[in-house]
Amino acid sequence: MSYLVWDEKYSVDIREIDAQHKRLVELINDLHDAMKQGKGRDVMTKVIQTLIDYATTHFATEENYMTKFNYSQYSIHKLEHNKFSKQVLNFQKEYNSGKVAITIEVMNFLKDWLVKHILGTDKKYVPLFNENGIS
To answer: Taking Cα atoms as reference points, which of 108, 81, 103, 87 lies closest to residue 3?
Structure first.
């Protein structure tokens, strides 16, 4: 059974962004599965690098639309993205220094981020994006 199951309540009604969010759900579940098998530390390097790549691509997608459509909450939203990126880089630093419990910390952070950020922040830009033909 998956640790986190995609639910339509997470959808922002924008195919491209939903697909990126679903990728994060897969990453969380992959990490959880590896932890259950006692292989969490074995996959952490890949997970952290994937998170860095994910953040770069996904945040650029959202931020490009926000600037294109003059989204009024752009600076607040960008701050959240910056905090996420900073936290992932901190995880990478901690992992590289040998911190043992990082897998659980990363998994919980990702789940909380996904749920709170999508439901609390991403949903706010949906009407503007949809009005401008993004779906």
So the answer is: 108
Q: Which two tokens stand for residue 51?
A: 């998170």
Nearest residue to 24 (alpha-carbon basis) of 47, 43, 42, 8: 47
The one-character DSSP state at 75 is H
Domain segments of the chain: what residues?
Answer: 14-131
Write the DSSP string, 89-120: HHHHHHHHTT-STHHHHHHHHHHHHHHHHHHH
Tokens of 87: 């936290």
CATH placement of domain 14-131: 1.20.120.50
Residue 126, number of CB atoms within 10 A of its CB = 16
pLDDT confidence of residue 101: 64
Dihedral (C-alpha) 27, 33, 36, 38: value to the nearest 10 degrees? -80
The answer to whether the CB of 39 falls within 8 A of the CB of 57 is no
Tens-place pLDDT, residues 1-56: 788 899 999 999 999 999 999 998 998 888 888 888 887 777 878 888 888 999 99
> How many distinct helices (H) and strands (E) make up the chain?
5, 0
